UniProtKB/TrEMBL annotation, chains A, B, C, D:
PANTHER family: UPF0045 PROTEIN ECM15
Protein's UniProt name: MTH1187 family thiamine-binding protein
NCBIfam families (alphabetical): MTH1187 family thiamine-binding protein
Superkingdom per UniProt: Bacteria
Domain Thiamine-binding protein: 5-95
Family that this chain belongs to: Belongs to the UPF0045 family.
Length: 97, 97, 97, 97
């Protein structure tokens, strides 16, 4: 099952600047070979359900290992059975209209 | 890694009433033996990361099998390494204050 | 326009325990006279669009005033024109199935 | 109070393709003169709290007026008092690391 995901990892208890934790999550996604696109309030990811969620779990493990005692993460997951759709398709479909 | 999750599954392309799909997701959580609590805009779930996310995947599979061609789901996931905390602890901690 | 909202306010840069900030948001909702229900990962709120969002803005103002330099909040908002529906209706509709 | 928002409007009861409703929301943001950036699972918006939330309300009004009987919307809102930060700053800060 293919998914398009929007991921926003928020480390808590590490002060106000969390850029280095978000950067670490980008590295997890790159190492996993997952298509992804950073935006101003999260990261879009595309791939197989199991691979994408394994990477999200690894983001939590790595961010805890960096010293964050608490993490609250928001995820949006889209799946469809009627047709395949990429992240680019979604943006292009809106732009066309 | 223990998680507290908030799950909101939104089937698309099946009309305006989605209660039966949400009820099916409740059954998935019960069958999985996961602690869970329905509220007016989602369901809180508590358990091991892998078990909780396996159940969420099954929610998507079942809701698609019921005929929904598209699903968009919102998930919040909380993990912490400083101490264990249950869903009840979280609510009680706020109430006490 | 009536709304059902799910609100989750996350103060950042104030350490790992955020219960007192969430409790303050509960007080904002009570003072506003809005129907609301705390759960383990947020608070359900019911009311007129403008009143509900004025209260949410006040939550940010109060939590900043308490010393939190940064806040990231998740909101889900549901509106419908086909019929009126309360928070209790939503839960009851799923339970019945 | 300046905000960075992530907005994802999901019309329900209108079938599986919702691109034209999302496109209408883009028009609302343009008419409001708000800085915004579409991505594959939502739209980032930057501006004053009241202007941004007035635009989000208008998105609901317009999408209902187009015939959608039900809408469920996800919003993330970030505010900070320690310094000003734009959408571009957030992305640049992660990229640099």
């Amino acid at each position: 099952m293919n998914v398009i995901v929007d991921l926003c990892v928020v480390p808590m208890g590490v002060g106000v600047s969390v850029g280095k934790y978000v950067a670490e999550c980008q590295r997890v996604l790159e190492e996993a070979g997952l298509e992804h696109q950073l935006h101003a309030y999260g990261t879009n990811i595309e791939g197989e359900w199991d691979e994408v969620f394994a990477a999200i779990k690894q983001c939590h493990e790595r961010v805890h290992a960096m010293g964050a005692p608490r993490i609250t993460t928001s995820i949006k997951v889209g799946t469809r059975t009627d047709r395949t759709q990429t992240m680019q398709d979604k943006v292009a479909s809106v732009r066309k209209k």
